[in-house]
TrEMBL record, chains A, B, C, D:
This is Thioesterase family protein. Coiled coil: none annotated. InterPro entries: ACOT13 (IPR039298), HotDog_dom_sf (IPR029069), PAAI_dom (IPR003736), Thioestr_dom (IPR006683). The keyword Hydrolase applies. It holds the Pfam family 4HBT. It comes from the Bacteria. Keywords: Hydrolase. Residues 45-118 form the Thioesterase domain. It comes from Hyphomonas johnsonii MHS-2.
Length: 140, 140, 140, 140
């Protein structure tokens, strides 16, 4: 699945919900997403809100799984743990998700979030997705 | 701070962002929030999305801290870890946050999310907030 | 499986490793373990060490799964997240594990650790175990 | 603090507890620890146990903090979250801890655990340490 295909998929899945994020890279085991923040994503002081970062993390982690599995509607988030490291102040925020493990039942991703071009991440997350079982016992 | 005062605070803080959640209970060490879901909160199949649950968890945890500290703008989420336990399908979702520890530097909350009236939680989270330091060395 | 059976199992599994913990309660969805601390479990100041608490948490969570599945050697820890809430000072430490969810692929437990008889927990953990797949597709 | 100084510190802190791990690298923001496993660290099948990995993770994360702060007895683990990714089978296990953030109140480390020489990590952890406050308000 290419980044263009991923964006087509997202536009269909989130039609009408004002999605602003887009996939900018899809390669085996890695996906990068980019969000141009608007007023709904900001907290006083111009901070990109925690929920905005968490939502982008979840989407990027899912896209990273899709680099292996393609679209699997039964793939669901099992755990998301995020550490907020420093203020996230800027107009464009990027989440870079890498697959640490993809097994039969679970995929585990490491995700960095940063303002586009920033040296240091604003937050770091580990996300676990539960994968659907194939009829023959193989994972998705 | 009462639930009414908490809602007044939230309305001011999130003016114009289409906030739909409200605080329904504030008591020492505990806060409950309630969200009437609309299309922006749903995934195909009528599931309340993970980001919607995470956002409600973060808000409820913050409100639980405020039962001790009042409004402290420098209180920031340090870690949020959520386990999605079962599908969250329904119109109204509730997050119930309880303070497990409030110390000088950190507050740690346990948060259950469930469809209003449901027996079992849809998700369970642990949230850590970093507290600002008072000039005299006491925590917020 | 009763607490006695659980202890017999543990003694066989950990023969020769100086195990000091024992199961004191097994009921559906819950297991309690108890450890009499010795010098190897302590840090300066008489604190029960973090690794000692984590080890007891992991064992108690596994025992809680066993109340549903019996002994399943292929059940493995997938994630353990622990928050240390307050100093754990005393001679006997207890971990109380409750199953929040047991599904086809995963079991998620909530575990409190406290000095025996203490009012407040010293630490709180959430533990996820991956369950082996049965040939017929059912979970363990 | 050099690796030799770190080992001298550890030997003094854990005298009589049969410590087998040693620090092999200390550089700003990073520490590596190495453990030669014995029977007490193994599970049936020759797996390095989860508690052994967690204990090594906690120590390596603490050492990484010490590359900034030196020895600070009041530095305590606040949260440890570990994902077990694949079996950890071998004689020597290594934990590589890197500081993602060191602030006034908290330090957050990313830790990989692997069998010495292995390509892929057996587990990955994120560890948060709470730092003591200096009388003048600066962090440790």
């Amino acid at each position: 699945m290419t980044a263009d295909e991923a964006n087509t998929f997202l536009s269909a899945a989130f039609v009408g919900t004002g999605r602003r994020s887009e996939v900018t890279l899809m390669e085996e085991g890695r996906a990068v997403m980019r969000l141009v923040a608007d007023a709904t994503h900001l907290r006083p002081g111009g901070y990109i809100s925690g929920p905005t970062q968490m939502s982008l993390v979840d989407s990027a982690a899912y896209m990273a799984v899709m680099t292996y599995t393609g679209h699997e509607p039964m793939t669901v988030t099992s755990n998301l743990s995020i550490n907020f490291l420093r203020p996230c102040i800027g107009d464009v925020v990027v989440a870079d998700a890498r697959v640490m493990k993809i097994g039969q039942a679970l995929a585990v991703m490491d995700v960095d979030v940063r303002i586009e071009g920033a040296d240091k991440p604003a937050s770091h997350a580990v996300v676990t997705y539960a994968l659907p079982r194939k009829p023959d016992g193989r994972a998705a």
